[in-house]
Amino acid sequence: MEHREYFNRRLHSLLGVVPIGIFVVQHLIINHFIVYGEESYNKAAGFMGNLPFVLALEIFVIYLPLIFHAVLGVYIAFTAKYNLGNYKFGRNWAFFFQRITGIIALIFIVWHVWQTRVQVALGNAEVNADMMYNILQQPFYFWFYIISILAIVYHLANGLWGFVVSWGIAQSPKSQRFFSYVSVLVFVVVSYIGIRTVIEFGL
Predict the structure, then answer these.
(1) Best label site of 13, 21, 76, 186, fewest CB within 10 Å?
(2) CATH number, domain at 137?
(3) What is the DSSP string of 151-194?
(4) Segment 69-125, tens digit of pLDDT
(5) pLDDT attached to residue 80
(6) First to last CA, the chain
(7) Is the omega angle on the peptide bond into residue 52 within 30 degrees of 0, that is, cis?
(8) Per the structure, how many domains does the chain have?
(9) pTM score > 0.85 for this model?
(10) Which domain holds residue 105?
């Protein structure tokens, strides 16, 4: 049982970076094309939507890994022991916020898929700039997306640190400190890409 839990947690960490983390960054970069105009965004979104075997890629590269990561993540979030009152050091707080942002990310992803991918499949919308303008020019969704993107990117950046530690890539205090800086850099850069996109659509 302990061996299986250890394996599941390592797999959970791996999937959070590959493929989920890579997809998140790629998705935000594609959306960021709106900065260069509607035509650039529509071309980029259209290219991704017309990839060969796109449905199979979505199912096996995105949805199934995401479901496993989300289910185990929720279990960890609600069974983990938080010692914030006793041990107020950075990593303990990072662990706490990792779980909170994971819940926020899950809520957002479910809603975002319903609001975009499902509506396209039902024939109620098309993947283009107008769809995102219609969503993000509503104040509630504008701020919902801002908060959710910050939560998702924090979850990814901090999860990257957890991945390199749990997989033995960063074992020494010096290497762990180095990857702490890398995580901060990832958070700043990817957050900027995501927030700039939302502002471009929403204002």
Answers:
(1) 76
(2) 1.20.1300.10
(3) HHHHHHHHHHHHHHHHTTSS-SHHHHHHHHHHHHHHHHHHHHHH
(4) 999 999 988 887 766 555 456 778 898 999 999 999 999 999 999 999 999 989 999
(5) 76
(6) 52
(7) no
(8) 1
(9) yes
(10) 2-202
